[in-house]
């Protein structure tokens, strides 16, 4: 929900999906696992020993409204703040020791992003429950236990209740007595459970960290299921990257995203209008359709470029190519060639999907729309 050092937002997708109706996170932090995908729809119970973290969750769950989120002031470089919610956005675990912090470019950017995340996800957590206390105070029920404590060793230091205050052997014994299934996260120093490597992550200054995981379940699963937790947990980083590469090469898209893509019949009609064709001067573009589908997704959803799904390519590359098409008049050329075709009326969708730019609601600039604007700023597909 909010920025928290060591959170699992970027790698939550590599952990098994919950198989129980209840998710319990005994070291809640920012609860990235419970917010991932549709996990939030489950009954979620968070436990955190840090009173400041628990107080934040209590406010978000019980009191916060969209209006409250929108009223939160922006942070600017050079400002000082003593609010815990601001301090933990400083992208350092040492922030837990700060009583006051000076706003840096990193903190300013993180806060700007988090305010949008708060507003977008607030409705998801209103049925959750937060407990301020030790992990042993968690209810003894069948659940999917996502356990992400401060990692053993130096990497777990710095938190208000860091690795120096945890008896890991006692924690391991407690974990083994859980009902349901357990997904346990650790780092390279984890040796108190039979952890398996999950992946390596790049950190600050080129450093890498080893992510490990331990899983056990009393829930029956078919071991030959390619999506079973046992299969997923043995994936190394190389295998994960290989699968992602194969998915991209095969043009894989999830059902959720296919609805924004052009159909085979439509693409067959417009493919030849894109530059980079074999036999033309210059390089051959191998992903025109994926690029165009990515542009369609952005224009249809109105989402920021940074939120472009990875299946469409790197958002920065797609955006640069989109701008290059604009600057070179490529969109104008495509529109001029197909605008008179009756089969291409889908190029002019309901403009309710489109966000007006400043000059669309007033200003001194020329209000006449160009062909480029019609296609690039007002198209759906």
Description of the structure:
The chain is α/β, with parallel strands linked by helices and 381 residues long. The chain is built from 14 helices and 9 strands. The chain has a 7-stranded mixed beta sheet with strand order 5-2-1-6-7-9-8. The protein has a two-stranded antiparallel ribbon with strand order 3-4.
Overall mean confidence score, pLDDT? 77
Overall tally of domains: 2
CATH topology of the largest domain, anyone?
Rossmann fold
Structural class by sheet pairing and helices:
alpha/beta
Q: Architecture of the largest domain, CATH level 2?
A: 3-Layer(aba) Sandwich
Beta strand % = 5-15%
Report low-confidence residues grouped into runs of 5 or more.
Answer: 222-227, 229-237, 348-357, 363-370, 372-381
Order of helices and strands: EHEHHEHEHEEHEEEHHHHHHHH
Number of strands: 9
Euclidean distance between termini CA atoms: 32 Å
Over the alpha carbons, how many angstroms does the gyration radius reach? 24 Å
Biggest sheet architecture: 7 strands, mixed
Helix content: 25-40%
By oligomeric state, this entry counts as single chain
Sheet with most strands: strand arrangement: 5-2-1-6-7-9-8
- Give the CATH class of the largest domain: Alpha Beta
Q: Which outline best applies? A: globular
